[in-house]
Design brief:
three-stranded mixed β-sheet, 5 helices, 2 domains
Length: 228
């Protein structure tokens, strides 16, 4: 009877551990967090690149307006002084040279903005995929947990039945041994030896272990011995 109880308790512990592992997996959202962090980082980068692009566009537009204004002034005939005309022409040339630089910067900003937009789209797609995988995986885990929980209920009911005919003092000994021996209190005799520690047993011990009326324990590991 104690050996059957040991089998049931080992199964109950195994199923309980499996359910705990499933609960840990259900609570684990590291993949979702990683995808969310990626979206956050790429969003921040895209926003920064977008601001850089807008600033570059404004700089180009402002300089073009200034060049147009200076050219309008140059050809308006309002300035008669040759030196002032020459200075204005030089300013316009300088501004046009700088405009080339600003337009190059604008092109770089456009390319950077386009690249960061693509990265953001990829990150957002991965977040959608991660959520989908998480939903599918959780559904599978919940199904498995339900199955294990049902089996655990059945095992606990069987255990209740198995415990009833056992003497209270034997239960106390059994529970103490389970705590002391990593959950294994009852072991079979295998090849005239204790299956747990391998100690060779005397024939008298083996014979006593066949009796259901008394507990026979291994002289080395103190576990309760069971003989078919």
């Amino acid at each position: 009877m104690l050996f059957r109880l040991q089998q049931l308790d080992s199964q109950i512990e195994q199923f309980g551990n499996s359910i705990n592992e499933i609960n840990l997996k259900l609570a684990d959202d590291t993949s979702i967090q990683a995808a969310q962090n990626s979206v956050r980082i790429t969003t921040e980068r895209q926003q920064a690149d977008r601001q850089t692009l807008l600033s570059a566009e404004r700089s180009v537009q402002d300089l073009k307006i200034k060049i147009e204004q200076n050219e309008a002034t140059l050809y308006s005939g309002k300035i008669q002084n040759p030196k002032e005309l020459q200075d204005l022409q030089n300013d316009i040339l300088s501004q046009k040279r700088f405009l080339v630089i600003l337009e190059d910067r604008l092109l770089e900003a456009m390319l950077a903005n386009e690249e960061s937009e693509n990265y953001l789209k990829l990150a957002e797609s991965e977040l959608v995929a991660a959520n989908a995988r998480n939903i599918e995986n959780n559904a599978r885990l919940l199904g498995e947990r339900t199955r294990l929980s049902d089996q655990l209920k059945r095992l606990n009911a069987e255990r209740q039945t198995a415990v009833t005919p056992i003497q209270p003092e034997d239960i106390i000994t059994y529970e103490q041994l389970r705590r002391q021996r990593k959950g294994i209190a009852v072991v079979k005799i295998s090849g005239k030896a204790c299956a747990a520690c391998g100690t060779t047993l005397a024939p008298a011990v083996i014979q006593l272990a066949q009796s259901p009326m008394q507990l026979v324990r291994c002289p080395t590991c103190s576990r309760i011995l069971y003989q078919d």
